[in-house]
Amino acid sequence: MHPSDMTTATGEADAADEVQLVVAPGRFHRSRPRPARRREVPPELPLGLLALALVLRGPIGSLLDGPAMQTWLTIFVSVSVQALPFLVLGVVLSGALTAFVPPSALARALPRRTLLAVPVAGVAGAALPGCECGSVPIAGRLVNRGAPPAAALTFLLAAPAINPVVMVATVVAFPGRPEMAVARFAASLTTAVVVGWLWVRLGRDEWLARARRPVVEGASRWTTFTSTASHDFLHAGGFLVLGGVTAATLQVVVPRSVLDTVAGTGVVAVLSMAVLAVVLAICSEADAFVAAGLSQFSLTSRLVFLVVGPMVDIKLVALQTGVFGKAFAARFAPLTFGVAVLVSVLIGWLLL
């Protein structure tokens, strides 16, 4: 084959299916296809929603005239506006840490003995502000870099629950009750460490066989930062809106007598708040404001909500299934749920 013909053929192949043909002596080597780029949110979407709101401003305005809708809107706006600054700060710090701090540095910092590595990994979670969505792939990378699985899982649970952004948000959401932040820190860290130690005895390596590193090869640090921060904000922001809508709806639609009855029954109230945390799947930087809005429930019940949510919810179970596999998620999620509820009730009884 003439060199010019070979160049033309190679160019046509690249243009057709983005597969590069590398010339070697006497043969061609076909490289792997380039990974598809992640789809971004269309810029026309916010403009379209804004235009729709302008067109429907008349009907929307008439709906907001009722006292029930005014109450709903007040609760929803208060939850969203109070939580938004902490959500923005969390995703910015999470993107920066993901881009500029290699997971191998965390793995090297852990003690060699697993029983000591577990609490150290739990305390290290305070250094990773951000949404719990980011802790799952980081834990997977820690496992692949040689960190003890129990320590990596402890970090996974503690990072979104005890970091400074979450603690400050809890203090702001519960003014005059700093003991809520103390109880949340103690219950979350204790739960993470206990689950880690239990995994040392109960966990099996084959349950973590699917752990993998979601790293984009060749991406610059700035690209990693912007993509991580924007993804976390869009993803967590949607769940924040869902949580605000649900909290406001519960206060307006459900009769107050029903909420008072459920909230006044100790065991039922605790389990109801635990299940609600799993279903709502609210970002840890925003869940304190939703819990503060459910004032009918006791502080201990709301503490259960704050501890269970960042560790076990529907989006986390899905992420854990994708990173570690179904066998892992089917065992890890129920174990964490049970420990989180028991520890939260105990800490609430002692501190609240």
Structure description:
- With 352 residues, the protein is mainly alpha-helical.
- α16 crosses α17.
- The protein is built from 17 helices and 2 strands.
- The chain has helices at residues 3-17, 44-55, 57-63, 67-100, 103-109, 114-124, 132-144, 149-162, 164-173, 178-202, 221-252, 256-264, 266-280, 287-293, 299-308, 314-324, 326-351; strands spanning 21-24, 27-30.
- The protein has a two-stranded antiparallel ribbon with strand order 1-2.
- Mean pLDDT is 75; it is low at 6-44 and 212-218.
- The longest helix is centred in the first third of the chain and has 34 residues, at 67-100.
- A hairpin with a 2-residue loop joins β1 and β2 (27-30).
- 73% of the residues lie in helices and 2% in strands.
- The protein has one domain (68-351).
Short account of what is shown:
By secondary structure, the chain is mainly α. Helices cover 73% and strands 2% of the residues. It has one domain.
The main β sheet shows up as:
2 strands, antiparallel
H and E string = HEEHHHHHHHHHHHHHHHH
Shape verdict: globular
Counting DSSP E segments of at least 2 residues, the number of strands comes to: 2
User: Which percent range fits the helix content?
Assistant: over 70%
**Straight-line N-to-C gap:** 81 Å
**Mean pLDDT over the residues:** 75
β-strand percent reads under 5%
Number of domains: 1
Number of helices: 17
| Secondary structure category | mainly alpha
> Uncertain runs with pLDDT below 50, 5 residues or more?
6-44, 212-218
Relevant terms:
single chain, 352 residues, mainly alpha, globular
